[in-house]
Design goal:
By secondary structure, the chain is α+β, with helices and mostly antiparallel strands. It folds into three domains: 87 residues, Zinc/RING finger domain, C3HC4 (zinc finger) (Herpes Virus-1, 2-Layer Sandwich), CATH 3.30.40.10; 144 residues, no CATH class; 246 residues, Methylamine Dehydrogenase, Chain H, CATH 2.130.10. The protein has ten helices and 35 strands. Strands 13-35-34-33 form a four-stranded antiparallel sheet, with no helix packed on it. The protein has a four-stranded antiparallel sheet with strand order 14-15-16-17, with no helix packed on it. β1 and β2 form a beta hairpin. The longest helix has 106 residues. Pfam families: zf-RING_UBOX. One of its GO terms (molecular function) is zinc ion binding. InterPro entries: 6-blade_b-propeller_TolB-like, Quino_amine_DH_bsu, TRIM45/56/19-like, Znf-RING_euk, Znf_B-box, Znf_RING, Znf_RING/FYVE/PHD, Znf_RING_CS. Keywords: Metal-binding, Phosphoprotein, Zinc, Zinc-finger.
């Protein structure tokens, strides 16, 4: 009975993963216990995941900072293992009460033998093939004991059977009582073990092959890394040499460029200073004469004094005849100075740094065929510019400003775009979307947009995936349509602002609302925004994938165009306070030709900047 109990206890002290006696046992949240080293291996299989799945019940346990050592220890089990390890094993074969200590353990008999019994056991012909282990090697951990399983319900019975449906071992008595119903497939434990071992061996063989495959892959990657590292080192050496050779030339070129800038701007500053000095001298002249004339407390009666007073009054009258200052000349001088640009070198020789250039602000100023009618503008697939007018039609202009044709002249245009197959997408004054072929044939595709009453004034944009976006002022949202027509496939909310205009920009949309530009993702989340208080702004995407923003001072008819990063950080000024003809209606659009020219449109005129 003592040996049976000892075997049952020994089985309870085995880790379900490594099948050895527990080492540093740790408890999971599901109450199952495993060796710390086994849990470390299981956690390592999950990569960086902090969740550990129990191999028995598959419940998950949170591992703090991926440190298994922080899981609670099974102190009771640890103490029991220590007690078992400290006990002596006595001979299972001796019948006397004072049993001697065992020195070996027979795997096949499942019994411990003292020196005498071991000698006798080894001489029995039937037992000469048994596997016998020295107890010293078992205690030291050099070998593992293959214990026979004893039934917990019937401790004298071995678990000789295995139920495939219940996934458990059982003795013959348990099989008869519990595993004879339909659906229970019972096989010999040895057969199951052989099959299981073979399965393990097959998996291990496959794992070794797969590991070998990935090891070759790792070796290949290491080889490629080494090659890249060699290239990196060589390039770094070359760069350092080139840097040392270039520093002197760059420093010299820098001084030359700074000198050029000073030469081009100092003259303007000097002329402005002369204008300022002349104006200040006139102020002093006026002040002096006025003070002398007006400081007289009484009218002079002396003839000489009266003559002198009259002369001073005449001088003051002459001074007052001078015209008021003309702001045009200093403004033009200022533009000349502000047009100076540093253009970085775009060629192969970066040591040249760049050159100083004077910006050429505008190339063309083109009157539209109809006044106060422009409502939308977009680049065409063939690199021209299409201007939509609400009085009817789309006017096409080349990059050099040549008017080429007017299409769809009988349709009121409130938005225009192009699909990837060059079909036209037209938004009319009732917020209806219509598709046209290259030959301007109307296609029978219907879109369920919001009416003008429900949605308000609408704007249109088309992205690279041929999705059509319609923004509504009154509804304060953007609907997204497929080119196949029908209902909107989704809606983008515009929380707290009115989307006056929309422009596609990669995976984002640019919305214009009064004096604010917003960069939003296609779920409506505002990523960045820029506000220019008091000014009207509009935006477009440049060919270099940056963002162009036009700022208009409507009252004084001045437009400036600046370049920004995708985070709406300022890059450079492109156009500064360019004078435009004042339109009655303050509605503006901005686009860029594929060839780089910038098109700025008012309700009356098209301006093309180079």
């Amino acid at each position: 009975m003592a040996d049976t109990l000892k075997n049952v206890i020994a089985q309870s002290l085995e880790c379900p993963v490594c099948l050895n006696t527990f080492t540093d046992p740790k408890i999971l949240s599901c109450s199952h216990t495993y060796c710390k080293a086994c849990l470390d291996n299981l956690l390592g299989c999950n990569g960086n995941d902090q969740m550990l799945r129990c191999p028995v019940c598959r419940a998950e346990t949170q591992v703090p900072n991926q440190e298994v050592s922080k899981l609670p220890a099974n102190l009771a089990l640890k103490s029991l293992i220590e007690d078992m390890n400290n006990q002596y094993q006595f001979c299972s074969n001796c019948k006397s009460e004072d049993k001697p200590k065992a020195v070996v353990y027979c795997q096949d008999c499942g019994r411990y033998f003292c020196i005498t019994c071991h000698s006798t056991h080894s001489q029995w012909p039937d037992f000469t093939s048994h596997e016998v282990l020295a107890l010293s090697e078992i205690v030291s951990g050099k070998v593992s004991v293959r214990r026979y399983r004893k039934c917990r319900k019937h401790p004298k019975e071995d678990e000789e059977c295995f139920c495939s449906d219940c996934r458990r071992f059982a003795c013959f008595r348990c099989v008869v009582m519990e595993h004879t119903n339909k659906g229970h497939l019972v096989i010999e434990a040895g057969v199951y073990e052989s099959s299981h071992v073979k399965s393990f061996e097959d998996l291990k063989s496959k794992a070794n092959k797969k590991r070998s495959c990935f090891q070759k892959y790792v070796d290949f990657i290491n080889e490629q890394k080494e090659r890249v590292s060699n290239v990196q080192k060589q390039c770094t050496d070359d760069i350092n040499k080139a840097y040392e050779e270039s520093v002197r030339q760059l420093a010299k070129k820098k001084e030359i460029l700074i000198g050029e800038v000073q030469g081009m701007t100092e003259g303007v500053k000097k002329d402005l200073e002369e204008m300022k000095k002349s104006a200040q001298e006139h102020i002093t002249h006026l002040t002096t004469i006025a003070d002398v004339v007006t400081n007289k407390t009484k009218i002079p009666l002396d003839m000489d004094a009266l003559a002198a007073h009259d002369t001073l009054c005449q001088d003051l009258q002459e001074a007052l005849k001078q015209e008021d200052p003309d702001y045009k000349q200093p403004r033009q001088l200022s533009k000349k100075g502000k047009s100076v640009r540093f253009k970085r070198n775009g060629g192969m020789d970066e040591r040249a740094l760049g050159k100083i250039v004077v910006a050429n602000l505008v190339a063309k100023n083109i009157a539209l065929s109809t006044k106060e009618s422009m409502i939308a503008m977009v680049g065409t697939p063939d690199g021209r510019m299409a201007v939509g007018v609400w009085t009817g039609g789309v006017e096409i202009f080349s990059a050099d400003g040549q008017y080429q044709q007017k299409i769809l002249k009988y349709y009121s245009i409130y938005g225009v775009g192009f699909l990837s197959d060059d079909r036209y997408v037209i938004l009319d004054n009732s917020n209806n979307i219509t598709l046209y072929t290259l030959e301007y044939t109307k296609l029978n595709v219907m879109f369920e947009t919001l009416s003008r009453d429900k949605g308000g004034f609408a704007s249109l944009a088309v992205d690279g995936d041929d999705q059509i976006y319609v923004s509504y002022r009154k509804a304060e949202k953007i609907q997204v349509f497929s080119p196949e027509g029908g209902k909107a496939i989704r809606e983008i909310p515009c929380d707290g602002y009115v989307p006056d205009q929309i422009t596609n920009y990669n995976d984002y949309l640019i919305t214009k609302s009064g004096d604010t530009i917003r960069l939003i993702d296609k779920q409506g989340v505002v990523k960045y925004q820029l506000t220019k208080a008091g000014d009207d702004v509009t935006a477009a995407v440049s060919g270099e994938n940056t963002i162009l923003i036009a700022t208009v001072k409507h009252d004084v008819c001045l437009v400036s165009i600046d370049e920004y990063t995708k985070k709406l950080k300022h890059v450079q000024n492109l156009v500064i306070d360019y004078k435009i003809e004042k339109p009655v209606r303050g509605w503006y659009t901005l686009q860029q030709y594929r060839s780089g020219e910038i098109a700025f449109c008012t309700p009356d005129r098209l301006y093309i900047f180079h």
